[in-house]
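Protocol step 4 of 5: obtain the predicted structure for the target chain.
Materials: sequence only (see below). No template structures provided, no constraints applied. The aim of this step is simply to have a reference model before the mutagenesis design in step 5. Sequence pasted as it appears in the construct record:
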Amino acid sequence: MLARTRLVLISLVTTAVLAATTACLPLPRPVADAAPVTPSAMPTADELPSPSEDAVADPDAFEDVFAERDQFFRDQQLPMDGTPLVAVTPAQQQFIAEQRTYVEQQGISWTAMDENLALALAGDACETAILSRHEVDASTLIAHVSTSPLFARLVPAEATGDERAAAEAPIASVMAFGATFLCPEDGAMWVAAYREVYGG
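Step 4 output (structure tokens):
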């Protein structure tokens, strides 16, 4: 999202309690004894290939993904002014209805903040998929979760290892599930990445 929009969304979810996001979806829970997936080691400068003279970045290629991202937000009617997000499209409404039903079946009350957060998580996932040129895998999910301001606000900073994975997994499951509605062409990749990283 645009930096300003991210800051607005962060401020909206600052008051959210982690318990409100633990309404994980009908995706698999993390396997307790599974080792978490980590990104591969970054190559050193000596290991990086030398760019050829033809390997010049095309500025138009970057404009295309930003134009697609902006169109996505217009199509989804996601406000950019800090207004709390509410489901307006049929796909968003179906996502929120299913998520709400699941949460309430767990005996947890559903709130407007939950709807706002669920849509923000799904929107962020779709934006990342667009900016990644619709190539989503486990490393994309790991990078997204590691750098997401939403996850940073919801996952305790001191959590590490299995504790961190257990805190991330229900939030990531909402994100991946939401992506199957907001950007279904990328949703299956997010679900596969979720299963690879968190188990199932």
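Step 4 remarks: The CA atoms of residues 134 and 186 lie 6 Å apart. DSSP finds eight helices and no strands in the chain.
Proceed to step 5.
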